[in-house]
Amino acid sequence: MATRTSRTGPRAAPPGYRCGECGWTTQKWVGRCGECQAWGTVEEVGAVRVRTTAPATVSTPARPIPEIDVEAARARPTGVGELDRVLGGGLVPGAVVLIAGEPGVGKSTLLLDVAARTAARGEDVLYVTGEESASQVRLRAGRIGALEQRLLLAAETDLGAVLGHVAQVRPSLLVADSVQTLASAEVDGAAGGVTQVREVAAALIRVAKESGTAVLLVGHVTKDGSIAGPRVLEHLVDVVLHVEGDRHSRLRLVRGVKNRYGPSDEVGCFDLSDEGIVELPDPSGLFTSRHADPAAGTCVTVTVEGKRPMLAEVQALVSPAPPGSPRRAVSGLDAQRVAMVLAVLQKRGRVPVLQSDVYAATVGGVRLSEPSVDLAVALAVASSVSERPVPGDLVAIGEVGLAGEVRRVTAVGRRLLEAQRLGYARALVPPGSGAPPAGMQVVEVPDLAEALARAQDLGPNVTRLRTDRRARGPA
Predict the structure, then answer these.
(1) Does 101 carry a binding-site annotation?
(2) Is 105 annotated to bind ligand?
(3) CB 300 within 8 A of CB 312
(4) 0.70 cut: is pTM over it?
(5) Where in this protein would one find the motif RadA KNRFG motif, according to its record (predicted)?
(6) How far apart are the C-alpha atoms of 347 and 459, rounded to whole Å?
């Protein structure tokens, strides 16, 4: 039989096939056992046999859909308004919510606060911790004021013990911190492995659907920020939330990624401190810096997260590059879109940036991914090149195309109302954006060259470019 060799000498390869009659093993499939000479008894080790499932007795008969009671599936508020906004109104009984984020971002603190608020309403809550001891969780609960008599705490890592606690307590809310620390004795593999995570999640989901208990699962993330474990975990749960935030900042964002009961693009804002995590119902203004005088290389835009418009400031720094490839550093923005905007600036706006180092970032740790921030990025970069600041009361909204055109974006009216509420009097928007708010000066710019000219001629060659276009006439 074939063997594998290693530096320490020959080592037998694990068997791939085994005879069901005598246990003889081999590395490849054969029709006849080499030991007992039986035919058709050699099968792959660990292979799942295909069986035909016979019809079984139904547990609940099918009913016409208008007769289904929907009151049991109504969302119940958690007591944290920002989290309810992301969840779509609150927690639905029987729903399974997966909350993921980097270590130290505040996942456990947020869920402990939610558990305490739920227990304060007279409901039984079970908090299972697999990462910390019960005493450590008790210290955090005392610090954030989450000491409630009906909040029950258990330190367990065995799935069977967790299911036993659920059967005994029958909670309306179960918090499992975290799903990667729980393991089933019935399944091979270490805790956190693909098989164990799938089994733990499936068992908790089954309990949630059968008993109507809402389940909050804490999930770990990998180096690139994705949820650790099998991708099927995100498909099994009802809601997936990501907790984002800079380690050096107190601001935390809870972003909805998947939601079967509400919008999947909402964002909740929180302030993480030593006393706990506090919701921020009005986050506008947190993502802009305060300048005594307008500073070159900055521009304010208005982004929409779900249904909420929020002001955000884009900062850019353009400096001479040493010989070689110029550097591009981006923080809080889409690097691919920034590279595209720089190319359009060079080609359509005649702003020399391709041979310079360009650094672009957002303020406050917010991440801007929608195309409506393209115009603000372009104006901030052009402002840094010319060292002429964008007016401090101006916001820029619009997507920039490869031909230099400024394209329309959604919800321009709500964006402008939010900007006006915070004291901004002027705005650059795409054509056809609708009627502007009363008392606000709104200029529609059809292309990037026009936007640069309106923002105090930030492009060095914009005037010549516009003259050349008029000389050529319409295309």
Answers:
(1) yes
(2) yes
(3) yes
(4) yes
(5) 258-262
(6) 12
